[in-house]
Amino acid sequence: MSDAAFNVLTACLVALLYLFLLRVVLLVARELRGTPIVAQQVIMAEPVAAPPPEPARRRTRGWNLVILEPAPRKGETFPVDDEATIGRGGGCGIALPDDTFVSTVHARAFTRDGDLWIEDLGSTNGTQVGGETLGEPQKLRRGDRIQIGGTLLEARR
Amino acid sequence: MTVTAPAATRKQRTTPFMRRRRNGELALGLHVVAIVVGGYVLLALSQGSSLPPDLGVFLAEITGLYVVANVAMRRFAPGADGTLLPLVALLNGLGFVMITRLDPSQARVQAVWTTIGVGVFVATLVVVRDLHWLERYRYTAALAGIGFLLLPLAPAPIGLSINGARLWAKLGPISFQPGEVAKVLLVVFFAGYLVDKRELLSAGSRRIGRLYMPDPKHLGPLLLVWSASIMVLVFERDLGSSLLLFSVFSAMLYVATNRSAYLLGGLVMFSGGTYAAYKMFGHVRTRFQIWWDPWPTASGKGYQIVQAWYAFAAGHIGGLGLGKGLAGEQLRSGSWRLPEASTDSIMAVIGEELGLIGAIAVVIAFMLLLGAGLRAAIDHPRPFEKLFATGLTTILGVQAFVIIGGITRVIPLTGLTLPFVSYGGSSLVANFALVGLLARVSDDAAQREMRA
């Protein structure tokens, strides 16, 4: 077989190879465009099997964090007895699995000498209290509003 | 809200979407068969000028193997990603053509291993119907994984030392590399363990300066398994696998906790470990010096990397054509001009005979395969499966990077096989099982989405 013919055949083979790679890319692109993005919201969190802690929890004398926004969860109350982590992850005391702007473990609320404190745990988007981004743990007063991602919480007692 | 039925009663169903995936898989597979058979024919044409005598058998065998795998997917994992199998077939087929070109007797062995590999792939799909139980046996997996890692260190009738690395174990008539199996088992453990502890590991409870440290008691078992596997690998002198395990582990830790500090910490630990190994072990120093400057020992220890360069250079952009390169020539001593041409250096043979274009096609195929693995991880709603698929994909990716990077002198060359391409039974079989597990994760994700 002549060299020229061999080289032409080799070129055909390489072309066939790249055609294959192109077909794979097109297939993937078509699938990605076609499927609704369901999985994107829940990045590492367990699908929440049970509804979050019942909103109608009896008010205690201690500190509570109450959700003001987003609207669907408005009014949910989380008592902070000792410590509660706040984040998108399912293991957090105050779990916000639907808020993509919240880090997996975003912040921590804790009580010390009867005061409620909030501390950011190195979250991506930060934690704001009264519009100020937290640098270090901050003591909260009654009525302070805490912005975590797209969620707004209020401190009450 | 998803209602999760018990595993036994959960029924697998096939939707039109899944059938489309399987049909696409079959179509792409036939395309791969055309490429591989084309390569096989071209190879024969370059050596004589007649068609290969066993062309019919070859065509029937690879088509048969592919159809078996496709049918198994239809039956046992109908919803799995449709690009996994074609990409694996392409890499494996291209590798087989190169091995045939290098040594027909190795090719016959590789053909047997490929058949066994497809069998293992099907068996994986049949046996591992549900990933829950893998998660439950994570500590068993850790123990078994470390056991497999230690096996080559066992006394002579079992443990074997080949090429200065103690990687082989011989059980009866079969000798294999237990490390290949160990990787998958350790990923099962890492995934199961990290799912349990990721909240604890990502939330800092102690503060050092501006850094939050998780409680050391949660890190303990992790570091133990980690350093145990690294130590074993250092004693077996298998730096490639050591690097592989370390990277896979760090990547999984990062994905599980979303804390880049772990990547940084991993890097620092790895640099420290490398420096210590450099100081302590002569063979590590040699590897490093060859990488830094191979020319002083170009006819000795640096011979392999220098020959690999020559091969890539000779291949230029378009390649010399299958069967026409020099790297794959057998010398009078019986070995190839390029050492380890069918295993560590196979990328250089591809680079010489199919050129930069061919070598890049292999890299693209790997990237697409990794994409398929990571999509399985993204699509699955449960954290264990996410981490598991990420870990398995990282194994393939890091292994491809370490060996391709090694032979092109991006990083020091360490002995690892190029998954699916290189000659070697243990690696082939383990990687087929790995892809079977990825297919299972991907199918599981599709099944859940359908039920939701």
Structural class of chain B: mainly alpha
Mean pLDDT of chain A: 79
Percentage of residues in strands of chain A: 25-35%
Task: Determine the fraction of residues in helical runs of chain B and give it as a percent range.
Answer: 55-70%
Reported for the largest beta sheet of chain A, the result is:
6 strands, antiparallel
Please, how many helices of chain A?
1
Low-confidence stretches of chain B: 1-9
- Terminal-residue CA separation of chain A: 90 Å
On the 0-100 scale, what is the average pLDDT of chain B? 87
The first-to-last residue Cα distance of chain B is 7 Å
Q: Write the H/E string of chain B, N to C.
A: HHHHHHEEEHEEHHHHHHHHH
Percent helix of chain A, as a range, is 10-25%
Major sheet of chain B = 3 strands, antiparallel
Number of E-state strands of chain B: 5
Global outline of chain B: globular
Q: What is the string of SSEs of chain A from the N terminus onward? A: HEEEEEEEEEEE
Outline type of chain A: rod-shaped
Taking all Cα atoms into account, the compactness measure Rg of chain B is 22 Å
The greatest inter-chain interface is formed by: A-B, 39 and 54 residues
Strand order of the largest sheet of chain B: 1-2-3
Describe this structure in words.
The complex is a heterodimer of chains A (157) and B (452). Chain A is α+β, with helices and mostly antiparallel strands. Chain A has 1 helix and 11 strands; from the N terminus they run αβββββββββββ. Chain A has one helix at residues 3-34; strands at residues 63-69, 77-80, 83-87, 94-95, 107-112, 115-120, 127-129, 132-133, 138-140, 145-148, 151-156. Chain A has a 6-stranded antiparallel sheet with strand order 2-1-11-10-7-8, with no helix packed on it. In chain A, a hairpin with a 2-residue loop joins strand 5 (107-112) and strand 6. The model of chain A is unreliable at 37-48 and 54-60 (pLDDT under 50). Chain B is mostly helical and 452 residues long. Chain B has one domain. Chain B is 68% helix and 4% strand. Chain B has 16 helices and 5 strands. Chain B has helices at residues 16-47, 55-76, 84-102, 104-127, 132-136, 138-150, 178-202, 216-235, 239-257, 260-280, 282-292, 303-315, 346-353, 355-379, 383-407, 425-451; strands at residues 159-162, 165-171, 174-176, 206-208, 211-213. Chain B has a 3-stranded antiparallel sheet with strand order 1-2-3, with no helix packed on it. In chain B, a hairpin with a 2-residue loop joins strand 4 (206-208) and strand 5. In chain B, helix 3 runs antiparallel to helix 14, helix 7 (178-202) runs parallel beside helix 9 and helix 7 (178-202) crosses helix 16. Chain B is globular, with a radius of gyration of 22 Å. The N and C termini of chain B lie close together (7 Å). Chains A and B meet through helix 1 of A and helix 1, helix 3, helix 7 and helix 14 of B.
